[in-house]
Design brief:
By secondary structure, the chain is α+β, with helices and mostly antiparallel strands. It contains 2 helices and 3 strands. It has helices at 26-37, 58-73; strands at residues 2-7, 14-19, 42-45. Helix 1 packs across helix 2 (58-73).
Length: 79
């Protein structure tokens, strides 16, 4: 899953896109995280594979948590 949040230069426009690669809704959840955190000019990629246990809706919490941790480690967010 990925989401991109980018200031498009000096013209004041803003570009944002995401893809969930079949994990329905995960791309938009990541996009919402970036918007809520007011993070710009960053690309977030989260990879997940099936390990035999279905996570249900809790998977979104884990996906967003991993993305947020990456933003903190990258210096885009304060802990």
């Amino acid at each position: 899953f990925f989401t991109d949040n980018n200031d498009n230069g000096n013209n004041g426009s803003h570009v944002s896109d995401n893809d969930d690669d079949g994990e329905k809704g995960s791309g938009s959840k990541l996009a919402s995280l970036l918007e809520m955190c007011r993070v710009e000019n960053v690309l977030v990629v989260v990879s997940r594979w099936f390990g035999g246990m279905k996570l249900g809706p809790a998977r979104f919490k884990w996906i967003a948590g991993v993305a947020r941790d990456g933003l903190v480690q990258g210096g885009f967010l304060l802990k």
